[in-house]
């Protein structure tokens, strides 16, 4: 049971932070775009980069989840 | 909008919805085996090297990019049309984007590698949506599949109009049977002969001939490794051995605690780059693939369509992100210290 | 690592694959594309410069022609003025001449008429004298009675009125 639960929790909990982060990031970017539409191209590029960096946190959680799921944690089995 | 529900349109809509309902009730799509490592294709071997389905998909993507590229430059004229127009548009839009980020000189120097990564990953990801990917392949007994790829769940098969397909009736190998197969297979390997199970359970597994290239960690990690190593090479070429100072901050500045941690962080971030680059691409495409599997498993028709659109977008986005991060890593490697010029 | 499907040969194969793709694209696809774009840019720049030069030349040509036209117009104006003044002068000349001639003709006609009148008057006097002579002669010949005298006068008057 715990073998299935562990990876699920890993990715599930690990995705909360990046989710909120990406939300805040896009909110800020969209507000900025609304205020100065003339630089929206630049803001968009930087927004994507910010999303990517926030997303990498979730990626680490994904790595842990995949390792738990397919390789297994030592001492669990 | 009002005309949407009139006349012929109404018939078409009802027909489609009917087909969806009928398919949801009667046409059951088996859930494909979700397997992290790329499957080795049985019987396809070059010099003791088992070819995997993702490798074939990689070559397919390579060929697509090359073919389109060569078709574009084959007939070029001063007044662009068709493919050439598109290629020039792509070329210029990304060159201006890179110029915004890193300046004219760097954009010019690294645009080719940027575009190569972008186009290659774009086609590698989009090929996933072509019918036949993940669904056409070689059917073999679950025992063989277990020995080769570690698949323990098979399906019964049936023949529809001469085409052998899997049904949705599962056959699962239990733990003792798995152990038996393992020992048998090891013995066959040792004797260097092909493995044949001495009894079959009637379960079969489909090994697809093609599987999205980026669902293989070898591709994504290989690409990430290449990118990060290239960025180091660029840094060394720009600054000589001084480039490595960023990792040796503690030694140079006489062990101030903060510099010690900066040096360690720089060092760790190099590995984090590889991991995040490769697993971002892998995770997104793999998850997309599984999503499409599950949607097709739930309702075979219509339901997967919006998700295919989503995957189209994700495929482009991931290719773009990988390429732009490559450019940014290259760009960062040319600064004397990562924190000095950029904040 | 094996459970994740990572293995050395495949990793290497994928890297080599990618490097090959990059080299091929960088050799056969990107340079011609870049060359084409640069050429087009060059041509556009050249075309724009040429257009600028042409426009400037046309502008110069135009202003030159305008100046010339202006000059010609002024010249024509001058000529017209000169011609009209000349014509005015000619008109005045002609008018003066005509007036002078008319005056001359009138003077001459008046002189002629005067002369004719004088001549006619002279002639009439001469005839009157002759007639008086004739009448005197008749009277002298017939003697004068009253009736005769009366008739004579009538005759005379008739004769003179007949004249």
Question: How would you characterize this protein structure?
Answer:
The complex is a heterotrimer of chains A (77), B (343) and C (163). Chain A is mainly alpha-helical and 77 residues long. Chain A has a single domain, classed as F1F0 ATP synthase subunit C (F1FO ATP Synthase, Up-down Bundle). Chain A contains 2 helices and no strands. Chain A has helices at 2-35, 40-71. Chain A is elongated and about 55 Å long. Chain B has 2 domains: 40-74 and 81-130 and 214-332, no CATH class; 137-208, no CATH class. Chain B is globular and about 65 Å long. In chain B, a hairpin with a 2-residue loop joins strand 1 (40-46) and strand 2 (49-52). With 343 residues, chain B is an alpha+beta fold. In chain B, the strands form 3 sheets. Chain B has a two-stranded antiparallel sheet. The termini of chain B are far apart. With 163 residues, chain C is an all-alpha fold. Chain C has one domain (8-162). Chain C is built from 2 helices and no strands. Chain C has helices at residues 8-142, 146-162. The model of chain C has no long low-confidence stretch (mean pLDDT 88). At the A-C interface, helix 2 of A face loops of C.
Please describe the structure with a list of short key phrases separated by commas or semicolons.
heterotrimer, A: 77 residues, mainly alpha, F1FO ATP Synthase, 2 helices, 86% helix, C: 163 residues, rod-shaped
Blueprint (SSEs and pairs):
The complex is a heterotrimer of chains A (77), B (343) and C (163).
Chain A: H1 2-35, H2 40-71
Helix pairs in contact in A: 1-2
Chain B: H1 7-26, E1 40-46, E2 49-52, H2 53-74, H3 83-102, H4 104-127, E3 131-134, E4 137-141, H5 142-149, E5 153-160, E6 163-172, H6 175-190, E7 204-208, H7 217-239, H8 249-252, H9 257-298, H10 304-333
Antiparallel strand pairs in B: 1-2, 4-7, 5-6
Chain C: H1 8-142, H2 146-162
Helix pairs in contact in C: 1-2
